[in-house]
Specification:
Layout: H1 19-28, E1 36-40, E2 50-56, E3 69-74, E4 90-95, H2 110-120, E5 124-133, E6 143-145, E7 148-152, H3 184-196, E8 201-202, E9 206-210, H4 218-225, E10 230-232, H5 235-244, E11 248-258, H6 268-289
Parallel strand pairs: 1-4, 1-5, 5-11, 6-8, 7-9, 9-10
Antiparallel strand pairs: 2-3, 3-4, 5-10, 6-11
The structure holds zinc ion.
Zinc ion (ZN) binds near residues 183, 248, 297 and 301.
């Protein structure tokens, strides 16, 4: 078993390794483990870009993830095997809200989700989500490659390093840097490809994450407009926990509505409809871009813990 599939501070408890890890190592061996995972948000309950080969339910020290994780062969354009992440590469998919959308944003088992993906050997996560727009120039149907976030959530589990001795990671506190919270390599690549495909895309955008599950009041929405471009409920702590596990994280946010700073109130129905209408853009972007991700990571994400310990 590769020694470095979890950060060095992880305590490896005998018997903790569950079927997923055994599946990944025994059936596929390490080179066939999924290195890229997609986390699908509202309206995205399957990736639609790969042939499902296996579904694994993984028990983690934080309970079960929000859905079984699908693993399969990635169907790159024309199955170009010469590309590093071509047709033969494994990819994983996890439905953030569960297959039946049973987990509201504040109840998504984020720690279990991230831990399970790390256990499978995932090094890069592409998080897809629906967001409201706080600015006129961010139109419904646009894709935002977020570069910053502001956290307005209130009571979530924000860290694997919670200082408790029962934590599977070191009981010492760490202070991870999130000055640039998203993987620079993935952001650059996805923007370039979206442009090439003529998909309406924003190279940057500040995502403001609220607790939910309710939408904002008009006053809140107007207040948030001063600081951010888009608003959603799921990015936190997903992006933070990925960084703690030294996984590259990219947020691909689909604008589904103008938040209530505009005259009409947001409806959940409208959000889902716009998401479904625009899903093809996301699939096209994933299909064309994932095969171009280089296996070697040259970004700071992979050593995020290096200077985080006191
Ligand atoms: Zn990275």
């Amino acid at each position: 078993m590769p020694k470095n599939y979890l950060p060095s501070s992880v305590k490896r408890n005998e018997g903790e390794e569950e079927d997923a890890v055994l599946f990944a190592f025994q059936k596929f061996k390490s080179k066939f483990m999924p290195k890229v995972a997609i986390i699908g948000g509202s309206g995205v309950y399957d990736s639609g870009i790969f042939k499902k080969e296996k579904e694994v339910r993984i028990k983690t020290p934080f309970g079960y993830p929000s859905s079984p994780i699908e693993i399969g062969d990635f169907l790159g354009p024309e199955g170009d095997a010469s590309r590093p992440y071509g047709a033969s590469q494994k990819i994983a998919f996890l439905a953030r809200h569960g297959k039946n959308h049973q987990f509201p944003p504040h109840k998504v088992p984020q720690k279990a989700n991230l831990w399970a993906l790390k256990k499978l050997g995932v090094e890069r996560i592409i998080g897809i989500c629906a967001v409201g727009s706080l600015k006129k120039s961010f139109k419904p149907g646009d894709i935002v490659i977020c570069d910053q976030f502001i956290d307005f959530t209130k009571k979530r589990e924000y860290t694997f390093y919670d200082g408790s001795t029962s934590s599977p990671l070191s009981s010492k506190a760490i202070h991870i840097s999130l000055a640039d919270p998203f993987c620079p390599e993935l952001r650059k690549l996805f923007f370039k490809e979206a442009k090439k495909l003529k998909i309406p895309v924003h190279q940057k955008g500040t995502y403001l994450c609220i607790e939910g599950p309710r939408f904002s009041t008009r006053a809140e929405s107007k207040f948030f407009r001063n600081f951010a471009d888009i608003i959603g409920m799921t990015l936190i702590p997903e992006a933070v926990l990925a960084r703690e596990l030294e996984i590259c994280y990219l947020s691909l946010a689909m604008v589904t509505d103008y938040d209530v700073w505009q005259d009409s109130p947001v409806s959940a129905e409208e959000v889902i409809k716009t998401m479904k209408d625009n899903l093809e853009k996301i699939k096209k972007l994933l299909k064309n871009t994932i095969p171009q991700i280089k296996i070697q990571r040259n970004c700071p994400c992979k050593t995020a813990l290096k200077n985080a310990k006191i």
